[in-house]
Amino acid sequence: MDPALAYLDAAEAILKRIREHEMEHIERAAEICAHTIANDGLVHMFATGHSRMMIEEMYPRHGSFPGFHPIVELSLTYHTQVVGANGQRQAMFLEHVEGFAPVILRNFVLQPPDSFLIFSNSGVNEVVVEMALEAKKRDLLVIAVISKDHSRLQPPKHSSGKKLIDIADVTIDNCTPAGDAMVRVEGLDDPVGPGSTIGGAAVTNALKCAIAQRLVALGKPPLVLTSSVFAGAEKSQQGFEDSYDDYRRRLKRVYGG
Questions:
Q1: In whole angstroms, what is the distance from residue 28 CA to residue 1 CA?
Q2: 70 CB contacts (<8 Å, ≥6 apart)?
Q3: Residue 256 has what pLDDT?
Q4: How many angstroms separate the CA atoms of 112 and 49, rounded?
Q5: Which range has the worst mean pLDDT, 14-18, 31-35, 78-82, 162-166?
Q6: Distances (CA, A) of 206 to 55, 69, 77, 143
Q7: Would you place residue 67 in the very low, low, confident or very high pLDDT band (cuts 50, 70, 90)?
Q8: What does pLDDT average to over the chain?
Q9: In whole angstroms, how far apart are CA 111 and each of 139, 155, 184, 254?
Q10: Which of 114, 158, 167, 244 could form a disulfide with 129 if both were Cys (CB 3.0 to 4.6 A apart)?
Q11: Which stretches of 110-186 are DSSP H helices?
């Protein structure tokens, strides 16, 4: 089969597995997040490496709404150089440094009704496991989005002996095959075409939509960042201002305000 078509088939299979197996988990996670947002809290989000993309997918962007707080360390992401100062060797090293997560969280005041959403394809690297443990110490419910197939094949790396799936109150499978890359090309030893972006983004947006439905049902419809195509230029711009103001209001407590 043509490799490009093979990738699209594999991507469709991921979406089918999410639809068939993960909707109950997405609905449970939506209940947690809607409770947080409806009660003026924040859903804190953490990820490293490529998984950071899912945090950007949640908010702020068109069709999104406030209530989500990104906690992203640039030193742990691909927003830096590949080699040289701030390179990927350093980022991949820092993912395995125990004690880093509490240093990051020292910047914030986290307490219920807040909750915590962590994206990690493997769910085993020390910093994401430790972040979940720290969230639980603060009595926050933790939602994890991982590849269960990938995580099952990885031994625990954190000194606690735990993986993210062992700590989270709700775990959503992004339904990506172990190893992430999904397509074999003739003459090439290693597979290409990772699938976790497809699975992660699908879970993120399905969750977002389920949360919005619950907020409306609670009588607290979210302030959506909407396109001028739907609302006209003036109303769209005002919507952005209102959404950002609401986000700023929620954020004050997180910095001790």
A1: 39
A2: 45, 55, 56, 58, 59
A3: 85
A4: 28
A5: 78-82
A6: 14, 18, 24, 14
A7: very high
A8: 95
A9: 7, 31, 46, 9
A10: 158
A11: 126-137, 148-153, 164-167
